[in-house]
Amino acid sequence: MAEYDLHHHGDREVGPGLVDLAVNVRLPRPPAWLRRELVSAVDSLAAYPSAAEATLAVAARHGRPPEEVLVTAGAAEAFTLLASALRPRRAVVVHPQFTEPEAALRAAGCDVSRVLLSEEDGFVLDPALVPSDAALVFVGNPTNPTSVLHPASVLRSLARPGRLLVVDEAFLDAVPGEVESLASGFPGVVVLRSLTKTWGLAGLRAGYVLGPADVVERLRAVQVPWSVSTLAGVATVACCRPSALEEAEKLAVAAEADREYLASGLGRLGVPVLGDPRGPFVLIRVPDGASVRVRLREAGYAVRRGDTFPGLGPDHLRLAVRDRAVTDGFLTALRKIL
Questions:
Q1: What's this model's pTM, rounded to 2 decimal places?
Q2: Which residues contact 30 (CB under 8 A, 6 or more apart)?
């Protein structure tokens, strides 16, 4: 298989003075109500953390038993836990997608194969492409970086006895109505969720796993003690409340409108958006993309290079969705460059 820098992420693109279109965290800071809760919890930091309350909050939010929930230090911790706890005989990662799952599997010594979705087909997932003997299958929904949302029915068709399907739904709460989610539960399926994207918490690391109780117990057995900090637990409880879910839905609707505004502007520049984007980011391909990325940086805009994602190349760029004022400035800079 071709070699890619699987540990390259959008935060490595940003820098002082740059407008950040490279990182998919939607808010520049947590909302005021969440900051207040985090600050109020600082006085309790002398005690060892417990994820018990956060576990109950996640269980109630998704209608799952607590034994089917594992709170984690961000969704990324779950990749390492799955790889180290399960060590599947053959794992398959559906690409292009977030590269940390493959990196974690390789670090654990697992045999990993790639299924590469086609740009010509809009990165649509064909279940027939997944080898029948795959014991563990990773897929993102909506997928980073393509922003494609796979139908739940297609994902469910990948589940079968002797196989664990892992669906990374880190951006699903940025899709209005959270359509196509498998978080409510399906046999043989593990769902990963992140709180960092919607709520501006990348520096806090807050996420969770939803899955069969026996799988969750195996993950818990290899989780580092107290890996979920007190503040991450507080944030998890707060972000699972009905008022927070209502706010997240409003943010998702706004992000959808902002994405359509960005896509329309790109289209006017003759830069089509690839696939059918549903998340808070889009994937484009431009001639001499590596040079365009550098020139955008010189113009004050950081965008995510695409050539570290298996299946993509240097002409691919991922753009985070921002508000219309930022988008207008970016489109003006891109027009001059093109």
A1: 0.96
A2: 38, 199, 200, 201, 235
